[in-house]
Design goal:
single chain, mainly alpha, about 0% strand, about 120 residues
Length: about 120
């Protein structure tokens, strides 16, 4: 039964990733991997909220973590795409863009996760 929850969450996360990625690419273009970066940053923010709520605020069924964190966020976030796109920027000689992409994704991602944790701790029940 655990696999079913992970699969349902993963499918929903993958669909969300695809739809949001298409929308971001349409709005901002594809010269820079904005879609992957935004998805990774929002994923970091969401995991900060979810794991804080699920582990510190409520005593919930462990299946929620499988559905939302392992499943949904596992399907939604895009680390493998992120690493490939960073390498492509470097191989294309776009070192500044590559370093901005890595620094933004990692540095801002940590800040997004911390913000999600703080919001969950201070405002959510």
């Amino acid at each position: 039964m655990d696999f079913l929850w992970v699969g349902i969450g993963g499918g929903a996360g993958a669909i969300m990733r695809y739809g949001l990625g298409k929308q971001i690419a349409r709005l901002w273009g594809t010269a820079f991997p904005y879609s992957t970066m935004v998805i990774n940053l929002t994923g970091a923010f969401i995991i900060g909220i979810l794991l804080t709520v699920l582990t510190e605020r409520t005593l919930t069924d462990p299946l929620w973590r499988l559905l939302l964190v392992t499943g949904f966020l596992g399907g939604y976030t895009t680390f493998s795409s992120y690493t490939y796109e960073a390498m492509q920027l470097f191989e294309d000689g776009r070192w500044g863009a590559g370093l901005l992409y890595i620094g933004g994704s990692n540095g801002v991602g940590l800040l997004c996760c911390a913000a999600g944790m703080a919001i969950a701790r201070n405002t959510l029940v």
